[in-house]
Amino acid sequence: MSVKECRGIDSDIAHPETLKSEQSPFSGSTSARSGLATAVDIGRLGEEAGRAVTMSRDAARAAVPAIPIPTTKSDKQWNTRSLGLRFAADAASAAVAGALICPIITIIDRAIIEKASKGISIRHTLTTCLRDMVRKPAGFFLSTPFILIYTLYGGTYLTANAIDTVTSTVRNQPFGTVTPGMEKFLTTTIVNMSICVYKDARFAKLFGPSNNPSAQCHPSAPAVTVAATGASSSAAAATAAKIASQVPKIPKVSYALFCLRDSVTIFASFNIPPLIAPSVPDWIASTPGMKAAVAQFSCPALMQFVSTPMHLLGLDLYNRQPPGGLGWRERLLRIRRDYIVSSFARMGKIVPAYGVGGVVNVRMRAALMEKLQLDDERKHIASSRTL
């Protein structure tokens, strides 16, 4: 090695920074880039750690159910808008439906009782009472039988409508909502049964075996005849007391049978039709309205094959009360004798009552409630615009 080369090595050893700068002119920029990459990596690690913490927090929230915070104010709201008008619509629908079907029901009901108690043909009673209704309409529509029948069916319709209105109010539903719930069945049955049992007891006494078979549809006529003959008031009172003492009491079993009969009829009239209406085949009824009408007509009518024996047995227990009682074989023979004709006669009574009357009541109420709903919405929109 020459002297010059040795001097060069000594110079490099003495000044190493000069050697580094000459060997790596871009060493400064490389260090900067490596530092920037390290910072980026740290940032990415921080983001991933943050996402992991967020995911663990969400999982913990999903695993622990939220505890509801009690509030002092209830969120439940009642639909009380136009409530008075809605009850008025219920009463109007019931009144119109009752006035439409009660005349024929009064006549049919009397014909069934006279057939069971006196053996008078149903046709004879129908023609006699229809003729009296046409000739003396005031006496017919103000008579006790008609008032009893009108109170029975008008009250039943009104109760069913009122239950629908109360239910729609409490549940915050539209005005025309119809419910087939158990509360409707129980309330309607109690009202119908209470009035109907009283009505049957009065009819049994008015048209039972102790009365004159030729009496007209106005049971007060015999008293007027007695007064017209010039009999004294004391004699009339004695005659009335004698007749009253001869009228037998209605057995408790008869009341129980009448209650069971009415429960079956009410259930078939108000609760079953809304449930089976959607199942009516399309070849019988193609629209929802027709399906509802078919169910409303058929259910109460077909149920009479079940309830008519209860009705006939209750009447027979009242009509025939011989000393020592009467065997069940004799009573079953009487029921068998009158079963077919009485079943169809009761269908002729129930179809107008819960078929025609039920459809008129339901559709009239639906129309009135729809009108009230539209009027209420218009008022609500107008009031919101003014605000």
Automatic annotation (TrEMBL):
This is Sequence orphan. Residues 1-32 are annotated as: Disordered. It comes from Talaromyces pinophilus (Penicillium pinophilum). InterPro entries: C365.16-ike. GO terms for cellular component: mitochondrion. Residues 1-20 have a biased composition (Basic and acidic residues). Coiled coil: none annotated. Residues 21-32 have a biased composition (Polar residues). It comes from the Eukaryota.
